Amino acid sequence: MYRKHNFEEKLNLVSQVKNCQTIKSVSKKYGIGASILAGWVQKYDLYGEKGLKRGRNIRATGELKETVSRLVLEKSVPLSRVALQYCISDTSIKSWIKIVRSEGYIGLYKDNIRGRPLRIMGRPKKRAPETELEKLQAENVRLRAENALLKKVKALVEEREARERMIGQKPSKN
Length: 174
Prior knowledge:
Blueprint (H helix, E strand, L loop, with lengths): L6 H12 L4 H8 L3 H14 L14 H12 L5 H8 L3 H14 L28 H36 L7
Helix pairs in contact: 1-3, 4-6
């Protein structure tokens, strides 16, 4: 299982390689893949100690994706070299290449909507009545609903009073 290594560990291993130990021997001694260690050494050679620190995640633009994809597909630059040069993961570049092969370069410019899709909840907003007739019709609808509610409440109260009379209790004034 792969575990993340902090900056100090990486620097220690790279310095051992720089002090005339082979990548294979250091990787075997510490149980790290030789390709991972070789990548750290290359990053150290290109960027110094800064190359071993974890970089910030960048949001790649369509232009950057296209540039990187063209380097790998058209100019046959090795994917690992492009990943080191642009500080982008191999898996990201592979996914961009997959998009180019299926949709073309235009597919790299599509905006990926991140996160859960929005759900429309509740009722749509009603517009305010504009004419006098619309205002009266809206008031009529409101009054009918209010009237229906009052009838329902009255029926429930009468039903409760009838039940209480059957049991022999006096109805409450509430």
